[in-house]
Design brief:
Oligomer: single chain
Helix content: 40-55%
Order of helices and strands: EHEHEHEHHEEHEEEHEEHEEHEHHH
Number of strands: 14
Strand content: 5-15%
Distance between the termini: 42 Å
Strand order of the largest sheet: 3-2-1-4-5-7
Number of helices: 12
Number of domains: 2
CATH superfamily of the largest domain: NAD(P)-binding Rossmann-like Domain
CATH topology of the largest domain: Rossmann fold
Shape: globular
CATH class of the largest domain: Alpha Beta
CATH architecture of the largest domain: 3-Layer(aba) Sandwich
């Protein structure tokens, strides 16, 4: 990677991957794009352009103008929003990816695009979900992720586009508050614990989901793109994971720092149904064997860091 174009740079992953890539490869070599006005840190930290990934001419123009050799395509609608707006989800998630792959084919770029735990469904093995297994999701988000995985495979096999990606679990960040995801509770719970000392969870007790702390998610994206292609048996949608837990386990860890913290439940049936269709845990041995994937954060280590960072950020004493 030398000249990197990022779509969806203002989103949960993009807002943290962009500065990480600028630190690694130089600010002028990483151009961030989105349809939204960027926060000051993105706009002032390097080049930024307003670009709609569903406009194929706009994508081709910015790739050519910037002379990108790598595209990190992050623009997408997340699970709960996609279920509420399926037509828009198909347009953004699929048309946007197609446009990026076409630009990559024409201008000989590598492409990183993340898939998700949402690419699995209720008939997928839920424990230690294999790298290669049944993928029959029941949400529009999941449908677009499976289709995206197949489309990336096709562009590699048919046109030789260097496509790579990972299947992210739920991602927890101390920088951005996500909106529209089924795993969002695992971020909101820390904010509410610090501000209110209580939290109402929209998933029921005992709902295990795979999770990852943002520093590990950023590391996975960079590591897979830097991997030796000769060692890659798979290319797209490597399972990656770090930890698996239900809501009550986060509450236990939080109470180590905020003893008075309490949590109750008000289940959202839509997000609960999505969560129930996803794996409890993924087998990421392919990523570990093919490109040396290793995570750093488990639940206790992540919780300590989240409490420390957010307490300072929110200026609240624990």
């Amino acid at each position: 990677m030398k000249r990197i174009l990022i779509t969806g740079a203002c989103g949960q992953i993009g807002s943290e991957l962009t500065p990480a890539l600028r630190e690694c490869y130089g600010a002028d070599n990483v151009i961030a794009t989105d349809i939204a006005d960027p926060p000051a840190c993105l706009k002032e930290g390097g080049p930024f352009k307003i670009v709609d990934c569903t406009d194929i001419n706009a994508i081709g123009w910015i790739v050519k103008k910037f002379q990108a050799d790598t595209i990190c395509h992050l623009a997408a609608l997340l699970s709960a929003v996609a279920e509420d707006k399926p037509n828009l989800a198909w347009k953004v998630n699929m048309t946007g990816l197609y446009n990026v792959l076409e630009a990559a084919r024409e201008y000989e770029c590598s492409v990183f695009t993340p898939s998700s735990i949402g690419a699995f469904g209720p008939t997928t093995p839920h424990n230690k979900t294999p790298q290669d297994t049944i993928q029959r999701p029941t949400s529009m988000y999941g449908v677009t992720k499976v289709a995206g995985e197949l489309l990336c495979d096709y562009y590699y096999k048919r046109f030789g586009v260097d496509t790579r990606g990972v299947r992210y679990p739920g991602i927890i960040s101390n920088e951005t508050v996500p909106s529209g995801g089924t795993t969002d509770y695992a971020v909101h719970i820390y904010y509410e614990a610090i501000k209110e000392r209580k939290y109402t969870c929209f998933l029921k007790k005992g709902t295990f989901l795979d999770m990852m702390y943002m520093p590990d998610a950023i590391k996975a994206a960079i590591d897979v793109m830097e991997a030796n292609p000769a060692k890659l048996i798979h290319r797209n949608a490597f399972n990656v994971t770090a930890m698996s837990f239900p809501p009550e386990m986060i509450a236990v860890e939080i109470k180590k720092y905020i003893p008075e913290f309490t949590m109750d439940y008000d289940v959202d049936p839509i997000r609960q149904a999505i969560a129930d269709s996803w794996p409890n845990s993924m087998d990421d041995s392919a990523a570990r064997e093919e490109w040396g994937w290793e995570h750093e954060y488990d639940l206790p280590k992540m919780t300590k860091d989240m409490i420390d960072v957010l307490t300072e950020k929110l200026r609240v004493k624990t």
